[in-house]
Design goal:
By secondary structure, this protein is α+β, with helices and mostly antiparallel strands. It has 14 helices and 23 strands. It folds into two domains: 206 residues, Alpha-beta prism (UDP-n-acetylglucosamine1-carboxyvinyl-transferase, Chain); 206 residues, Enolpyruvate transferase domain (UDP-n-acetylglucosamine1-carboxyvinyl-transferase, Chain). It binds ligand EPZ. Ligand EPZ binds next to helix 1, helix 5, helix 6 and helix 12.
Amino acid sequence: MEAFAIEGGKPLSGTLRIHGAKNAALPILAATVLAEGQFEIHDVPHLKDIEVMLKILSEIGAKVSHKEHCVSIDTSQIHETHVPDELMGQMRSSIFLMGPLLARFGEVTISRPGGCAIGERRIDLHLSGLTALGAEYVDAEGYITFRSKSLLGNKIFLTFPSVGATENLMMAAVLAEGTTSICNAAREPEIVDLQNFLNAMGAKVRGAGTDTIVIEGVPKLASVSYRVIPDRIVTGTHLLAVGIAKGHIELHNTVPDHVTALIEMIRGSGVEIKVRHDIMEIKNTSRPHPINRIMTSPYPGFPTDLQAQMMAYLSLANGTSLMKETVFEGRFKHVTELERMGASIYVDLGTAFIRGVDKFYGASVEASDLRAGAALVLAGLAAQGTTCVQQIHHIDRGYERIERQLQQLGASISRINI
Ligand code: EPZ
């Protein structure tokens, strides 16, 4: 089994280019199903979740290849509308095939999607949204089959601004007859990237980035070439790595506006960040101040995907911070592992009380999901002694060879077999 061995105590230094966003690439790859032809999607990271998405596309009939961050897809031979069960179970994002397959073929069958152990990961908003577009479904024997002669535009209100449901419904509505409004839509940058991709294909989508997205259905879409946006969560992870391990680095190919909440919090805790165009420079030589209250929330609020990494950062602050997780009910599994490294954290009713300690101590810890795993790696960078992070397949789902990224910044980390 693979693990990361980390020798702590080395401040980071150097320059790193941020790779394309996993959470932009996954819906965009699924959206290629909406048109027949040859696509080229650029700056797609080599990640486990991307691999699974490409396997699904290949299993339903597409021809795919992924070389040096460029994905080529020929969707003209897609014929299958049943997403393979074993692949559905490996990744939550397999649900993104529902909208496109239903829109193009009028039918789709999936089994319940898998995903991280961070909460229930319900799909009711996906199901009710597609039903509102005129599709009918049967949920029996572990399979959900949607059928529709033709999807009809409608007004849909999301009771929660679900990222995945917003994206799935955008992809279903682009070929529907008439106009669809998605109200209380998610506003994440990855939603804007999907809108831009769909419009490049000939769709008529507007409003992404706000809470109301309007889609005018069109009869047909065309294949295109496209480059996905940089990964804001990988960007934030490396900013917090310097906050934790200290040092001075530059991150290139970033979109600073996509991490505004984090930048303000890090600056507020006394660490210097400079921004110029797509370059972010962070320098930290001291212990951060605590942050009284942080609450994760949908974009543009503080992202749940940086909650674990921020907890590791605040565990070394010179005081007590309070952090509430409001998006996923089970996203504190990293607390016990951080405590094994010397952190002092008390959790009650979805809120973590983080009392800053002087240092982390190296320990053997386990990743429970991709961002929790990243937080343990960051803690290991600052720990006294050696840290062994196990179950690192979780981390490989969202970070392209994170050990190489950190080695490039001077960290002493290696991938070992144990
Ligand atoms: C996306 O997941 C991201 N994944 C997640 O990133 C991210 O944490 C999440 O959005 C929130 O920002 C991708 O984009 C591939 P949601 P998604 O639907 O779409 C509830 C990472 O670390 N909900 O916005 O699954 C749900 O239970 C991953 O890269 C319903 O109740 O998130 C959760 O509590 C982890 N019914 C909340 O909404 C539904 O039908 C947020 O879920 C759908 C969701």
